[in-house]
Every structure is written in structure tokens, then in C-alpha cells.
Amino acid sequence: LREECGVSGWSLLQLPGDAVLVPAGAPHQVQSLTGTISVEQRFLSPESAVRLRDLGSDAAGT
pTM of the full predicted structure? Predict the structure, then answer.
């Protein structure tokens, strides 16, 4: 992705008790190295609502 689109990725090791917050609209990928129970909570702040709407409009071409 870096060469094609100028996008750099991040890699991290999440340990028990750690939380990872992914910004709205940010693509992400997860790989579990061991048996895992995952809990996901989608959260939309009022400040992000307009940005999310605009991202959806851009993706739909409207």
C-alpha cells in the first residue's frame, strides 16, 4: 500500500487488558495469534457524525 497509495500500516501486540481505539473511517485488520475472545464496541461521537456521513457519500459516489 505504501508504494501504490502512500499509505503506511501499523503493527502492534495487544496484551490482556489492553484496548485499541481505531478512528472512524480507518480500515483495519486483526490477526489473533492464540485462542481469543474479542469484544467490539462501535462508537460514534456527535463530532464524528458529519465526517462519517461524508465518507459514506464519497464511497457511494454521491
Answer: 0.46
